[in-house]
Amino acid sequence: MSDPAPSHVVRPTRRAEIAAAVTSLEVGTFDPELVIQELVAWGDAMADDPMLSSMTGFPFLRLWLRAGGLRAMVRREFGEPTPTPWTEESEGRGRTGVFPVGVVGCWPAGNVEIQPFLTLACALLGGNACVLRVPSGLVEQVDRGLNALASGTGTGTIARRVVALSIDRDASELHGALAAQCDGAMIWGGHDAVMAVRSLPFPPHARISVFGPRYSIGAVTRDAWTSSPKAAQAVAEKIARDVWPFEQQACSSPQTIYVERDHGSVAEVGETGIEAFLEHLQRAFSREAELHPRASLAPSLTASIMADRAEWLFAGEGRRALFPATPDWTILYGMNIRSPVTRGGRVITVIAVDAIEDNLGDIGRDVQTLGLACTDKGREAAIAAAAAGRGCDRIVPFGRMHVFDTPWDGLPLISPLTRRVRQLYQSVVTVERSA
After folding, report:
1. C-alpha pair distances (Å), 185 with each of 1, 5, 46, 122, 180
2. DSSP per-residue codes, 22-37
3. 14 Cβ contact list (under 8 Å, min separation 6)
4. Is 276 helix (H, G, I), strand (E, B) or coil?
5. Between the N and C ends of the chain, which has fewer C-beta atoms within 10 Å?
């Protein structure tokens, strides 16, 4: 029998073990192309692991770890050509360069299985060394992912820049020891988790990027779904694709969809004017359930879904619901009802409204993404501007709500964890003094 593969996740019990792990890391230079090539190879290696390739969201991670998309992210943040390693200033007075901040601590949330890998990639693209605090429920996935990183990335350059630590949530002394070693940090998660990490004793110079708890909504204007059954079905299918990943636990998961009524279609008392659209949405959800069935369903989630259905239907008149006999999906709907913020478990709340603009007041700084279907470009621009002004950071077409791209939550993903260094030429100073 062969020996088991060594674990790539360190379980420290003393501060000195954390210091030793960080000391072993190699901080690189800002060389995005080198990192991109190894990230692509990493994606290929993870795809060969059946456990990793079956993770929720892995198809997206696989597409994200492509050279073209990664290069586009770097261009958007650093310009073209990428300043590697130095860029001469046009007036000839000196040059500027991009350098890593050093050691970046990564605290991903535990509700999205692929997030540790996305977080590492962003920090690595800046040339940094990375210390990953592994969520307790993702130790095996991260271990296997780092095994793929060590064995499948050619030169192993970025593998030597990563260490993963499994630290209990309540081990505040160890978390503090980790923070003290960091020159930068990427922090993800809910309110309590984010506040706990932010309170750690980071050095004063540490650069910290925070991606805290938020939620997302959608809006469908009348023209986007009433022009033809084909158009309505296309919008419904894209909404279903956005609802399905991550059991709606991601900040980019739509929770409530506002749909403008078709007043001319109302034939009976109590109708909302979106019944035709709901039929398309029901078909889209049923189809998505066939294409991407759940591998398993926790009893607690089943109970939560059933409770959501009952609570909605008993909450008052004008509320209806569409769902199969199983807890595969749920569409709760009504007219001019203020929806709860989040539900999850493939439970979507659809609110019939007279005008999307009348409901933009529901958007605050806790709304991350607005999925939008609107065929009028002028109105689309006005809705986007209003949503952005109220705090929403992403306004995207349905079908693209989960596309992880820069900026995210209003922040660039790579450049905040780099330094801009300027060298002023000695010859220029000498000439100025002589003059």
Report:
1. 41, 30, 25, 11, 11
2. HHT-----S-HHHHHH
3. none
4. helix
5. N
DSSP letter at 314?
A: T
Running DSSP on this structure, what letter comes out for residue 365? T
Superfamily of domain covering 215-397:
Aldehyde Dehydrogenase; Chain A, domain 2 (3.40.309.10)
Residue 375 above 80 pLDDT? yes
**Alpha-carbon gap, residue 171 to 167, rounded angstroms:** 7
* C-alpha distances out from residue 429 to 87, 95, 165, 326, Å: 19, 14, 48, 75
Q: Which of 295, 404, 385, 313 is nearest to 395 (CA)?
A: 385
* pLDDT over 70 at 6, yes or no: no
Render pLDDT for 265-312 as a digit per residue (tens, 0 to 9): 776 757 889 999 999 999 999 999 999 998 788 899 999 999 999 999
Beta sheet of 9-10, edge-to-edge order: 9-10, 162-165, 129-133, 103-107, 184-188, 207-211
Distance separating alpha carbons of residues 34 and 154, to the nearest angstrom: 11
Query: Vertex 217, ends 266 and 405: CA angle to 5°?
Result: 140
Instruction: Tell me which of 3.40.1120.10, 3.55.30.10, 3.40.605.10, 3.40.50.300 is the CATH number of domain 9-212+409-424.
Output: 3.40.605.10
Structure tokens at 102: 């050093």
Q: Name residue, tokens 């991550």.
A: 246
Locate tokens 């809910």: which residue?
A: 190
Task: From 241, 262, 189, 251, select the one nearest 217 (Cα to Cα).
Answer: 251
What SS3 string covers 35-104? HHHHHHHHHHHHHCCHHHHCCCCHHHHHHHCCHHHHHHHHHHHHCCCCCCCEEECCCCCEEEEEEECCEE
Cis peptide before 324 (omega within 30 of 0): no
- The stretch 199-221 carries a mean pLDDT of 96
